[in-house]
Structure formats: structure tokens, C-alpha cells
Target: Copper-containing nitrite reductase
Amino acid sequence: MLAMSAGCRPDPNALPAGVDPPPPVTADSDTGGSLKGDFGPPQGEPIKAVLTQPPLVPPATGRSAPAKVIVELEVQEKEMEISDGVTYTFWTFGGTVPGSFIRVRQGDTVELHLRNAPGNKMPHNIDLHGVTGPGGGAASTFTAPGHGSQFTFKALNAGLFVYHCATAPVGMHIANGMYGLILVEPPAGMPPVDHEYYVMQGDFYTTGKYREKGHQPFDMDKAIDERPTYVLFNGREGSLTGDKALKAKTGETVRLYVGNGGPNLVTSFHVIGEIFDKVWYEGGTKYQENVQTTLIPSGGAAIMQFHLEVPGTYVMVDHSIFRAFNKGALAMLKAEGPDRKDIYSGKEVDENYVSGRALANTQAVSTAAAAAKSGALTLEQQIAAGKDLFAGTCSTCHQANGQGLPGVFPPLAGSSVLKATPKRIVQIMLHGLNGKVTVNGKDYDSVMPPMSQLSDDEVANIGTFVLNSWGNPGGRVTAAEATTERARPAPAAGGE
Ligand SMILES: [Cu+2]
Model:
């Protein structure tokens, strides 16, 4: 039968002339996993692991034999900013979110010391996904404040692994920032590249709204319902934007070690304007090529690599895109180098992406928040904070100079509407505006969407900035006025 079909028509599985057949799947084409990960007892003197804080990655181990590696981690519970003017009590491995990056080689014997800093309030432990053994170390490392514990494991599988705290309530410990990455290099190491960076996503649950100023406690109900207030890279909104953006030059290759601590969300990790040349998906041994977006499960990781050709700002997002622009999941990589108009002609368009409330270094916003808290907020501080926020919120339509766009977006500069009723700006921001409106003698019949995602102090500061700019009548908007306006029903269309 085989002979007959071969004789009658061409074999549909035959390869075209000159094309090699794929390599056969043999026992050698996989790494053997843990079965082949034990290279015998550790050699030489014990080595103290180099740990790094995000976004840095420790140097390659550079070793060709298994060693005993000592890792010392200290749990610190500390208050840090989660966004400008917003503080949160994080629980951390080593004082940062995510925790210190650990790098060892397959076959290494790792002696892990966990200290729980005196003054902490909670017991903690560590479960490393790179450990072979029940609990991944959790049971051996349960540690009360002011105490230390240790356990030893042999890193049998190569890969990029998440570690996290697994003390009850587990979800709360993870939600507070208790996770990090451990890279177990394959025996030959990772191929060298120009830059390696450490980025980890996490979802956060605060009782207040997104960007609501002041200290924000953890909200267990939101966490159980999986309704995060923030979705962040490296534990803070703006941790990798503006001056803190990752840096590289064109002609260089960048490798990202990206983890997802969760506790709840899966991430669709994407770099706007780049294509991953390689993705070691799920943090494992094999790579896929030419990938746009890679999925990283909660409690998982991936390694991506790309070569930079065109200079400019590359924005990294969770492509579940409301998380990027309305919950903070946005980071940047700045590539310097000469233009490559042959590859990309355009002007820099990152403003379009970045403006949607993702500006970094809004120092004035923090200053105003601190001043408001102490009851000493000045008009100047409100105007300065409002100016920063206007740039990320209103300027897309009304333009940075408040002139609007003829026939499309009315001017805020010298606006007759604001001259007639200055405080109407609060209502327009919170409830939007539609129907016919006449501004400086010209008619507009368009729609401004409500900007109700703004917090009350943001409304107050933007309003104050606009009223005190471009020949407008001046005055001051308070957060209390925003609270009152928010509670009122939206006015009917065509308010003129
Ligand atoms: Cu913990």
C-alpha cells in the first residue's frame, strides 16, 4: 500500500529539494531536567551569592563546576511610596519590591538564610519555585520577627523561577510585595548580551482609589475579588519611567528577566515598538522567536531578548491595557543612538502613549500631597501639581498651551466659559460636557468624556492650575468641592 501510493502521487510529507529534515527527537534533544541536573558534590570554597536590587541582575556565575552558594535574605516591612504622594506598608525580601535577584548555576547547592528583621510585626518564610522538595522551603524557613532560619537545596532544574512568601494569609503576604526571582543558569550559562534587567509585575489592593493620596492600607475584600487598585512593575508607579527608565544604545541587545508575582493577575507582557527576538517562555529552557506579547502566569516568569535598531523610548506594558494607563503597569526603556530612517521614518510618538496619566517625576504632585496632609497647601503648590497633571490628562485635547484645536477642542486659555462661571470647571471635569457650547465666540458641538478617574485632589489641583493660567480669572478649587460635585448627578446635555 505504501509502495502503491508512492507510485501514484507525490508524498505530501516530502520536503522540497535542498531542505534539511528537522533533527530527530532523541533522548539528547531535551535537557533531562532534574534527572540530569545533579553534577555531584559542591567544589571549592563556599561562595556568597551576589544579590541585586531591581532593575539590576547579578553577573553571570561564570562557573563550570557546582559550588556551594550562600544566600542571605532579610525580610523588611517598610513604608514606601506606591505612587506619587501615596504610601503603602510593603513586606519585602531585602527592602525592595520585587526582592533581591538571586543567580546560581544548575547543580549548585544553595544554603539559604532567611532573617526576619527585628521590629517587623509578622512571621514570614520563603517558597522558591526552583527548589525540589515539598513546600519549596516554606516549612523550613518559618521565621518570627527578630529570628533567622536556614535550609539547603540542590538546584536541579535550570530556569527562571519565582520565589515568594508562603505564610498565612499567603495572598496578603504576596500582595504586600513578598516575591522575587531566582535564575538557575544552565551549565553553559546564558549567552552574553549588552544589558540584563530585572522587572517584575504585581497587583496591589488599597482601600483608597487609584492615586488617592496619603497612606493606603491593604484591602482584603478587593484582593479576594481580584479588583486591584494598582498593577505595577517593580512595586511603584513610575519605578521605571522618566529618569528611572531602563537604558541602552542602538546596536545593543537587551535581555529582560520578567516575573509575575501576582497574587491574582496574569500579564500580557509587551514592549511597544519592539519585537522579542527570543522569548524563553515560562522561564524554561526552550525559546520561541519573533514574539509580540508573551503571557506570564501569576507565580511564573519569562526571559525575553531583543536587539535595538531604532533610537527612542520603548514603553513596556501589560497589554491588558487599562492596567497600563489606569493602574500603573507601564515602564520605559530609552535607546540612544543615531536615527535609522531606513527602518523607521517617524517622529517620536511616545507622548501619545505616555501622556495618559503615566508621566514620571511628578515631584510637584508629591509635594502638594504632603502639604495637603499637613494642612499647609499653598496656592503655588496646587498650581504646580495641577500643571504636571494637566500635561498627562487634559493636554491631549486642549493642548499643552491651553489653545485647543480650531473647530475640534475649545481653548481653555482666556475661556469665556470659565470667565462667566469659574467653578464650572469642576463639574465639567467630573461629569464631562456634551451638546453645544460657545467659547470665545465660536461654537463647539462635541463631547468631552468625564474625567471621573481623577481623584478629588487631582481635580482640585488641575482646576486651580487652569483657573490661574493663560489669562483665566484665577481662584482656587478645593478637594472638598470635588467631593461634593462628584456626588451630584451629571447635568443634562447642552448646558448652555
Ligand atoms: Cu511574608
Observations:
- The chain has three domains: 36-188, 198-356, 362-487.
- Residues 309 and 433 are 44 Å apart (CA to CA).
- The longest strand covers residues 68-83.
